[in-house]
Amino acid sequence: MNAFRLAGDITHLISILVLLLKIYATKSCSGISLKTQELYAVVFLARYLDLFTDFISVYNSVMKVVFILSSVAIVWCMRRHRAVKRSYDKELDTFRHYYLVGACFVFALLVHEKFTFQEVFWAFSIYLEAVAIIPQLVLLQRSGNVDNLTGQYVFFLGAYRALYILNWIYRYFTEAKFSRWIACISGLVQTALYADFFYYYFLSWKNNAKLNLPA
Amino acid sequence: GSEPEGHDEL
């Protein structure tokens, strides 16, 4: 495992910790899209079907369990926890995420590495992860101002994607038979979705001002 | 790392 990949996994982990911190410390999930969180839970459940069939490393297995449990816990909290539930911006979080699930599944049936149960679900999870941030970005755009922890959550999530791209470039040059075009192209699409957010994030950071997304 | 069949990334 190269340094970019490790740094990517760690920023991914940090993003989840920041989100958990926000929810636990403020007992609020305002600014967070439940739809995006539901999509991530589906992403991890679909992708890690191999948890019990393909052992890669202790690191891999532990991270998989952490991602599944944390994503399910966040959804549970936003749906069931009394105080957290009350702070949910339901009227701003109206993106029809079921369409994304359907479209990604159909696409996975058409484009996959192998036509097996696990491989189709793996491809589905890759496509769904690429677009799962959309409801979150739409919510932020609608609400305009973004609180610190929410901004940092999305920033770390975007950083994770950018580092994974560096990881693929590194692997492409260092591994003889590295061809992961499904993951790479989806990853590029996913990272491109953050471009706008990153632009305003760096602007606010440079000017030392609160993060504001123009409508 | 080695990557024969399964997906080694998260």
Would you mind describing this structure in some detail?
Chain A is mainly alpha-helical. Chain A has 10 helices and no strands. In chain A, 73% of the residues lie in helices and 0% in strands. Chain A is globular and about 45 Å long. The model of chain A has no long low-confidence stretch (mean pLDDT 94). Chain B is 0% helix and 0% strand. Classes of the chains: A mainly alpha (215), B little secondary structure (10). Chain A binds chain B through residues 1, 5, 9, 12, 47, 50, 54, 56, 60, 63-64, 67, 122, 164, 167, 175, 180, 183, and chain B through 1, 3, 5-10.
Chain-averaged pLDDT of chain B: 68
> Residue ranges of chain A: pLDDT <50 for 5 or more in a row?
none
State the assembly state of the protein chains.
heterodimer
Strand content of chain B: under 5%
Global geometry of chain B: flat
Profile the largest sheet of chain A: none
Beta-strand content bin of chain A: under 5%
Kindly name the structural category of chain B: little secondary structure
Task: Please work out how many helical segments of chain B DSSP would assign.
Answer: 0
Q: How would you classify the helix and strand content of chain A by structural class?
A: mainly alpha
**Outline type of chain A:** globular
Q: Which percent bin holds the helix content of chain A?
A: over 70%
Largest interface: A-B, 18 and 8 residues
Strand elements of chain A, count: 0
Sequence stretches where pLDDT stays below 50 over 5 or more residues of chain B: none
Kindly state the number of beta strands of chain B.
0
Distance between the termini of chain B: 14 Å
Spatial separation of the terminal alpha carbons of chain A: 41 Å
Q: What is the chain-wise order of helices and strands of chain A?
A: HHHHHHHHHH
Count of DSSP-assigned helices of chain A: 10
